[in-house]
């Protein structure tokens, strides 16, 4: 076919291509005007057959009419198991290039197109995943080289598909002198709002991006277009994290409720949002239901998680090599462990104890907070509350989900007969990194246990100790098993306090390196103390340098720094640690620090004022909010609740990119997170991540960037160093540890919707009147502080660990799980305004001092 005809026929498709590139977040390249581009490809029009080109041995093909078609066998595992390529391409650092080609396929498949150095570790200059179909499409990708290479390779990696198909390519060019790619994200309206919604009695703020120096008027309209509130913005000026000039719009006083509100200012109208209802209820459920499709070792049931059904991953079924009997590389250990189960860490198939420990701890804290916080509500976390298989077992679903991971953590412990008995292996992962997409069940790699580490051992100790106290009323045997594993791990860590995991990793997994484990020791001691009350843990805490240190800096805590997490639990979970008030003071002071930073930020952001947004910055934002939420639970002061809600606005769209970082929430959401199996961007047959998945978020640390970030984000303001592209693992991965604080904050926010109206005017004094070895006497005095009589009054609290009820007087006490409910108060008669009623019980306890519950809630008819 003559070349001109070929071009004309494909013109329409070229437009489509440009749109596709725009959707990926960037403008297509244009040719620089002052120099003649050179095409680096030899025989890109296939006029000389396949001269200059090579293929892997499993491909055969033929050239006809300037198009080369090759037959690709089915049944290979990786994209690079079948390659069409050309070598010896020279790239010059700082120069920009445009890769162009035309391609079609006999099936709708995605392939991997890249320019790389064909030498381990295979650095790439550009990596793209065009989706081919039966009609030829033109593709164009611009990139800037960041190294001088004389031997770059253009590769079309076309393996990985189950069925045989045919790949046809024509008009391949690699042109010099291209315009550098420019990142032009779709930031939507300049009025940036929480795209999900606000609470009627909560703070309601938006950020307007504008160069206007003076206040500008704003209007709030309801879904019908009726004006419901108006005012003027507050100019803030240049803001460094976004690189933009902004104003704040405060519409907190708006009292209308409903769906579909919009905010208009400076000629721009925001995405729609709700006011009222319970905008965060589904978010909380989704953020926790995220974990089920992340499970390893179990088939995911499509009826439970619609759209996410898949085969079990890493069971002992080929091509998986299975996690049923995993040993150490180079026979470094003489045993094999069954480490089936647990959650995959992130977009990869690795399972890492340090990160598993913090993730499951924060998920369990969703439940533990609900037990102890005055506005906590275990009712929304009951059996049947999440999309998981364990319904009907009488156990709160979030604990069922947590157990899936805790059991994996226990399995990672070194067996009793070995030298490092009780230590935990740091991680288990593939021998080599695999490509994307790759379903867990299709991973053919051998997997190994990496050496035990003190950090992993202590994370296991902390998480298992917390599990022990939370599972105690539901499964005493499992609770005992957890506690034994935790205490064994603690002793092992004391015996091997400096087995540090390195900052570098063998191929196929992330490092999770950590050479300061003083915080891990503190966390494990705190959880063991909360669960057992044992004096040796108390002594350890009080002697630790961590105890009095400020633990609430930027990001509050993360997998490598867990002191803050320990302090939140010491502050909120009932215990008799001497000087415990000091810890409460530290938590509240930490929260005050975050509120101060938040007040200074026109985005309501406490994180990032230093100018750095770290890998996983969204989790740092949310973990700071967990501290603020705990301060609310401890003090009841509304400013902390408002701070949490304001912080959540950033995650849900009030940010420099106008992007909601949670899949399925908001008009413009992240949905192409880095994942091997939620890989819809690469393969239309695969799903996007499930609703309620959090993206890692802006990462301004350029030295940690992946090739996609390097290609598109150069020069970004910190808050804008993010791209919703599946290749950008350093800005856009999904992980078990990042979704956990989302679950915590979404649950907290959901509980704040409408709590004020439900609380009757009553005051409770809960006194431990006396205690003796093995028992105590509790007296509860309830007062009606309101003007109306209280009818059918009942009280609820979570019984502190180590206590049980023996007998009671002047009341009926029932116990369900941790929760005690007191009914038949005042003999079933109404409690008149100003009157008090006293009842009590004899309790049994373990060796520790009996303490009162963290909070008691009243309800009345
Ligand atoms: O979350 C981790 C981040 O703090 C580190 O800076 C980064 C580089 O070591 O690794 C992140 O963890 C990744 C892990 O190593 C492998 N699985 C995916 C994790 C999220 O990106």
TrEMBL record:
Keyword tags: Carbohydrate metabolism, Cellulose degradation, Glycosidase, Hydrolase, Polysaccharide degradation, Signal
Signal peptide per UniProt: 1-26
Domain CBM2 stretches: 755-861
Coiled coil (UniProt feature): none
Keyword Hydrolase part of the UniProt annotation: yes
GO molecular function, one term: polysaccharide binding
Annotated Gene3D superfamilies: 1.50.10.10, 2.60.40.290, Galactose-binding domain-like, Immunoglobulins
Active site: 724, 733
Classification via Pfam families: CBM_2, CBM_4_9, CelD_N, Glyco_hydro_9
Name assigned to this protein: Endoglucanase
Organism of provenance: Glycomyces lechevalierae
């Amino acid at each position: 076919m003559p070349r001109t005809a070929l071009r004309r026929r494909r013109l329409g498709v070229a437009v489509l291509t440009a749109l596709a590139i725009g959707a990926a977040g960037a403008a297509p390249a244009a040719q620089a005007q002052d120099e003649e581009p050179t095409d680096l490809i030899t025989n890109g029009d296939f006029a000389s057959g396949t001269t200059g080109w090579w293929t892997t041995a499993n491909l055969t093909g033929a050239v006809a009419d300037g198009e080369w078609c090759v037959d690709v066998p089915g049944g290979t595992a990786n994209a690079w198991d079948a390659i069409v390529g050309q070598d010896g391409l020279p790239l010059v650092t700082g120069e920009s290039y445009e890769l162009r080609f035309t391609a079609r396929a006999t099936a709708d498949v995605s392939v991997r197109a890249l320019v790389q150095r064909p030498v381990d570790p295979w650095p790439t200059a550009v990596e793209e995943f065009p989706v081919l179909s039966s009609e030829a499409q033109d593709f164009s990708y611009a990139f800037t080289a960041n190294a001088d290479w004389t031997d770059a390779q253009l590769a079309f990696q076309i393996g990985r598909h189950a069925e045989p198909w045919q790949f046809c390519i024509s008009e391949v060019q690699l042109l010099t002198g291209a315009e550098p790619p420019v990142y032009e994200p779709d930031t939507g309206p300049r009025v940036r709002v929480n795209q999900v919604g606000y609470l009627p009695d909560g703070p309601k703020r938006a950020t307007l991006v504008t160069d206007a120096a003076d206040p500008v008027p704003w209007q709030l309209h309801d879904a019908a277009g009726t004006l419901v509130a108006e005012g003027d913005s507050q100019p803030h000026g240049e803001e460094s994290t976004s690189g933009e000039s902004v104003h704040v719009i405060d519409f907190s006083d708006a009292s209308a409720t409903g769906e579909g509100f919009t905010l208009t200012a400076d000629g721009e109208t925001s995405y729609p949002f709700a006011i009222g209802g319970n905008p965060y209820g589904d978010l909380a459920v989704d953020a926790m239901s995220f974990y089920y499709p992340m499970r390893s070792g179990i088939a995911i049931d499509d009826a439970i998680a619609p759209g996410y059904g898949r085969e079990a991953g890493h069971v002992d079924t080929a091509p998986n090599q299975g996690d049923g009997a995993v040993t150490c590389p180079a026979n470094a250990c003489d045993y094999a462990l069954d480490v089936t189960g647990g959650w995959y860490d992130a977009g990869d198939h690795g399972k890492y104890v340090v990160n598993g420990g913090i993730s499951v701890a924060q998920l369990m804290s969703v439940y533990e907070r609900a037990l102890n916080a005055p506005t906590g509500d275990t009712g929304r976390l009951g059996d049947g509350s999440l999309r998981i298989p364990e319904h009907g077992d009488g156990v709160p679903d979030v604990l069922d989900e947590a157990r899936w991971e805790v059991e994996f953590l226990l399995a990672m412990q070194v067996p009793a007969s070995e030298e490092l008995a009780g230590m935990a292996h740091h991680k288990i992962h593939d021998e080599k990194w695999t490509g994307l997409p790759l379903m867990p069940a299709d991973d053919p790699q051998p997997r190994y246990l990496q050496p035990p580490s003190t950090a992993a051992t202590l994370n296991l100790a902390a998480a298992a100790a917390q599990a022990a106290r939370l599972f105690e009323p539901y499964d005493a045997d499992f609770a005992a098993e957890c506690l034994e594993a935790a205490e064994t791990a603690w002793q092992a860590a004391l015996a091997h306090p400096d087995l540090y995991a390195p900052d570098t990793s063998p191929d196929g997994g992330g490092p999770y390196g950590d050479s300061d484990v003083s915080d891990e020791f503190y966390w494990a001691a705190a959880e063991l103390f909360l669960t057992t009350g044992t004096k040796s843990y108390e002594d350890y805490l009080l002697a630790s340098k961590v105890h009095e240190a400020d633990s609430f800096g930027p990001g509050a805590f993360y997998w490598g720094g867990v002191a803050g997490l320990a302090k939140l639990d010491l502050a909120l979970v009932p215990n008799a640690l001497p000087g415990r008030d000091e810890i409460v003071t530290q938590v509240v002071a930490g929260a005050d620090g975050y509120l101060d930073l938040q007040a200074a930020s026109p985005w309501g952001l406490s994180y990032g004022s230093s100018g750095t947004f770290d890998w996983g910055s969204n989790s740092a934002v949310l973990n700071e909010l967990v501290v603020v939420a705990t301060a609310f639970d401890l003090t009841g002061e509304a400013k902390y609740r408002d701070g949490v809600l304001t912080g959540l606005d950033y995650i849900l769209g009030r940010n420099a990119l106008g992007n909601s970082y949670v899949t399925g929430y908001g008009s413009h959401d992240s949905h192409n997170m880095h994942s091997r199996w939620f890989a819809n961007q690469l393969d239309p047959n695969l799903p996007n991540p499930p609703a309620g998945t959090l993206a890692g978020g802006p990462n301004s640390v350029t030295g940690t960037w992946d090739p996609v970030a390097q290609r598109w984000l150069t020069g970004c303001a910190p808050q804008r160093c993010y791209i919703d592209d599946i290749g950008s693992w350093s800005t856009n991965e999904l992980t078990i540890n990042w979704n956990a604080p989302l679950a915590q904050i979404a649950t907290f926010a959901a509980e704040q919707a409408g709590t004020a109206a439900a609380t009757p005017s009553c005051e409770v004094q809960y006194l431990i009147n006396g205690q003796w070895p093995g028992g105590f006497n509790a007296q509860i005095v309830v007062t009606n502080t309101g003007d109306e009589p209280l009818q059918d009054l009942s009280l609820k609290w979570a019984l502190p660990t180590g206590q049980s009820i023996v007998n009671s007087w002047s009341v009926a006490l029932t116990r369900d799980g941790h929760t005690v409910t007191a009914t038949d108060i005042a003999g079933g008669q109404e409690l008149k305004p100003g009157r008090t009623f006293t009842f009590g019980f004899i309790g049994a306890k373990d060796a520790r001092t009996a303490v009162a519950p963290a909070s008691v809630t009243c309800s009345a008819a």
